[in-house]
Automatic annotation (TrEMBL):
The lineage of its organism: Bacteria, Bacillati, Actinomycetota, Actinomycetes, Kitasatosporales. One of its GO terms (biological process) is respiratory electron transport chain. This is Cytochrome bc1 complex cytochrome b subunit. It is a multi-pass membrane protein. Keywords: Cell membrane, Electron transport, Heme, Iron, Membrane, Metal-binding, Respiratory chain, Translocase, Transmembrane, Transmembrane helix, Transport. Its main location: membrane. Its EC number is 7.1.1.8. One of its GO terms (cellular component) is plasma membrane. It catalyses: a quinol + 2 Fe(III)-[cytochrome c](out) = a quinone + 2 Fe(II)-[cytochrome c](out) + 2 H(+)(out). Residues 19-245 form the Cytochrome b/b6 N-terminal region profile domain.
Length: 543
C-alpha cells in the first residue's frame, strides 16, 4: 500500500499579470519601462506649450479620421438636392456637396469639422509660440540642434497640411487660395507653366487637384509629421529635458517630478483640458462656413478672401510687392511681383532654421547645454527673434489690408505703403528697442545683486538723510541672477605662426570676429556681478 503527500496548489496569477509577463518575455517591455517611466521632468508652465501642440495634433488626427468617412474628394460636378435649401439646384463638385452633407446631415459632423479646423489653428499657434520659447531661452543649443530642425519642419509641414486641408471643401474661399498658389507656381522662371500643368493635371482648375490634395492631406504630410513628432519626443527623452537655472540645478542633473505617475497623470488631465477648450471654442465660434460663400468658380472671387493666420504673411508679401516684371529676349516673363516675395518667404525663415548652427560657430562653444537662458541675458539673440516676429506680423497686416481698410475706414493704398515701408523699417526698430530693454533689465539685475531689493520703506538716518531700505536677496535669488554665462569677443588669433611667419587672417575669421564683437562686445551686454565684487561690497569695504 502506497501513500502520496498532497502538495498545496499554487493559486493562479491575475490575468493582467499573466498578460504583462507574456508581453515582457517577448518584447522586453518591463526593462524598457523601468528605465524610462521614472525619468525626471522639470515643472514649468512654459513647457506646457509643447504639450498643447502634441494634444492638438492628436485631436486633429482623431477628428480627421471621422471626417474621411463622409468626405468625397471628387471634382465631378453634380446638382445639389441636399437639406441646405439655399444651395438646392446649384451645380457644384462632389467635394463641396459632401462638405455640406457633413455640416448639415451627418450627426455631429459640423462640430467635428469645427474642432478639426480650430485644433489645426491652435496646433500651429502653439508650434509658433513653442518655437519662440525655445529660441529665446537657447534650448536649441547642443545637443538639440537636430531637434530644433525637426520642430521647424513640423511647423512648415503643418502650414502646408493646413493649406491642403482648407482647400478640400472646394468652396469659393479655398478656391481663391488655390488660385493664389497657381499664380506663385506660374511665377517660377522658365518652368512655371510646366509645373502648373503637372500639379493641376491640365489647365486650372482641372479635375485632379482636390483628389491630389486629399491624398497629400490625409496620407503623405500627416505620415511625415507623425514620424517627426515621434523622433522629436524620442530625442527629448534621450537628451533629457532642459530646465531653468535655480537651486540645485546644473547641466548634469534634472530637478523635477518622475514621468510616472506624477507627470503622466498631469499630462492626461491636461489633454482633456485642451480637448475641452477646443470643443468649447468650436461650439461657440463658427469657422469656415462654406455654405455662406458657395462653390468655387474660376470667374468669381469671395469678398474679404483671407487665408488662415499662418498663411497670411505669404499673401501680405505678394499684396505689398509692386507689380514689377521683365520680358526677356527669349519671350519669357519674370514676374518679380510674385517671384521676389516667394524667395523672401523661403530665405528669411530659412535663416531662423539654421540659426543654432550660426550661434554655435559664432561662440565656438561645443559644450552641452541643459540650463536655459533668460532672454534678457542674451540681448542680441532676443532682439533678433523679436525683429523676426515683427516682420511676420507686418506681412500679416498686408495680407488683411482689405479687411483692415473696411473695418477701420482707412485707405487700402495707405495700408499697402505702410507694409512696404514697415517691412524694412519696423524690424530694425524692434531690434534696437528690444536690445535696449534687455540691457536695461540686465542693469536692474546687477543693481539688485549689489544692493538688494527695494522695499519701498524710507528711513531717516541720524544726521537727517533719508534713504530707502533695501532687503538682501536670498542665495537662491542671487544664484538665479548670476548663473548665466557671458561669452567674450572672439579674437582673430596670433598674427604669427609657430615658425615666426606672418599669418594673414581669413575672411571667415574676420567675419566671425566682427559678428562676435556685435554680439558680445562693449555695450552689447552688461557684465554680471563677480564673486569678488559681491564679497567686497558685503564685507563692509564697499560703498
Amino acid at each position: 500500500m502506497s501513500t502520496t503527500t498532497e502538495q498545496p496548489r499554487r493559486g493562479k496569477a491575475p490575468a493582467g499579470e499573466r498578460v504583462a509577463d507574456w508581453a515582457d518575455g517577448r518584447l522586453g517591455i518591463y526593462s524598457l519601462a523601468k528605465t524610462n517611466m521614472r525619468k525626471i521632468f522639470p515643472d514649468h508652465w512654459s513647457f506646457m506649450l509643447g504639450e498643447v501642440c502634441l494634444y492638438s495634433f492628436i485631436i486633429i488626427i482623431l477628428t480627421g479620421v471621422y471626417l474621411t468617412l463622409f468626405f468625397h474628394p471628387s471634382m465631378n460636378e453634380i446638382v445639389y438636392h441636399g437639406s441646405y435649401v439655399p444651395m438646392q439646384g446649384v451645380r457644384m463638385t462632389e467635394a463641396y456637396a459632401s462638405t455640406l452633407d457633413i455640416s448639415f446631415d451627418v450627426r455631429g459632423g459640423l462640430l467635428i469639422r469645427q474642432i478639426h479646423h480650430w485644433a489645426a489653428l491652435i496646433f500651429l499657434a502653439g508650434m509658433f509660440v513653442h518655437m519662440m520659447r525655445v529660441f529665446f531661452t537657447g534650448a536649441f543649443r547642443k545637443p538639440r540642434e537636430v531637434n530644433w530642425l525637426f520642430g521647424f519642419l513640423l511647423f512648415v509641414l503643418g502650414m502646408f497640411t493646413g493649406f491642403t486641408g482648407y482647400s478640400l471643401p472646394d468652396d469659393l474661399l479655398s478656391g481663391t487660395g488655390v488660385r493664389f498658389v497657381e499664380g506663385a507656381i506660374l511665377a517660377v522662371p522658365v518652368v512655371g507653366t510646366y509645373l502648373q500643368m503637372f500639379v493641376f493635371g491640365g489647365e486650372f482648375p482641372g479635375t485632379d487637384i482636390i483628389p491630389r490634395f486629399y491624398a497629400i492631406h490625409i496620407l503623405l504630410l500627416p505620415g511625415i509629421m507623425l514620424a517627426l513628432v515621434v523622433a522629436h519626443l524620442i530625442l527629448v527623452f534621450h537628451h533629457k529635458h532642459t530646465q531653468y537655472a535655480g537651486a540645485g540645478r546644473t547641466n548634469k542633473n534634472v530637478v523635477g517630478m518622475p514621468f510616472m505617475p506624477v507627470y503622466m497623470a498631469k499630462a492626461g488631465g491636461f489633454f482633456f483640458l485642451v480637448f475641452g477648450v477646443i470643443a468649447v471654442i468650436a461650439g461657440a465660434f463658427t469657422i469656415n462656413p462654406v455654405w455662406a460663400v458657395g462653390p468655387y468658380r474660376p470667374d468669381h472671387v469671395s469678398t474679404g478672401a483671407q487665408p488662415d493666420w499662418y498663411m497670411g504673411f505669404t499673401e501680405g508679401a505678394v499684396r505689398a510687392m509692386p507689380a514689377w516684371e521683365w520680358v526677356l529676349p527669349t519671350g519669357h516673363t519674370l514676374n518679380f511681383g510674385v517671384l521676389i516675395p516667394m524667395l523672401l518667404l523661403v530665405i528669411v525663415p530659412g535663416v531662423l532654421a539654421v540659426y543654432p548652427f550660426f550661434e554655435s560657430w559664432l561662440t565656438g562653444d561645443k559644450r552641452e547645454h541643459h540650463l536655459l537662458d533668460r532672454p534678457r541675458n542674451v540681448p542680441t539673440r532676443t532682439a533678433f527673434g523679436a525683429a523676426w516676429i515683427s516682420w511676420y506680423f507686418v506681412l500679416m497686416i498686408g495680407g488683411g489690408n482689405d479687411i483692415i481698410a473696411t473695418y477701420f475706414h482707412l485707405s487700402i493704398n495707405a495700408i499697402t505703403w505702410f507694409v512696404r515701408i514697415g517691412f524694412f523699417v519696423v524690424p530694425p526698430l524692434v531690434f534696437i528697442v528690444t536690445k535696449r530693454i534687455c540691457l536695461g533689465l540686465q542693469r536692474r539685475d546687477r543693481d539688485k545683486v549689489l544692493h538688494g531689493r527695494e522695499t519701498g520703506i524710507i528711513k531717516r538716518l541720524p544726521h537727517g538723510e533719508f534713504v530707502e531700505v533695501h532687503e538682501a536677496l536670498s542665495q537662491a535669488q542671487l544664484h538665479r541672477l548670476t548663473a548665466h554665462e557671458q561669452y567674450t569677443v572672439a579674437a582673430l588669433g596670433p598674427v604669427v605662426d609657430e615658425n615666426g611667419v606672418e599669418r594673414k587672417p581669413t575672411r571667415k575669421e574676420k567675419l566671425r570676429a566682427r559678428l562676435s564683437k556685435g554680439y558680445f562686445g562693449e555695450g552689447n551686454q552688461i557684465p554680471k556681478v563677480t564673486a569678488e565684487e559681491y564679497r567686497e561690497l558685503t564685507s563692509g569695504h564697499g560703498h
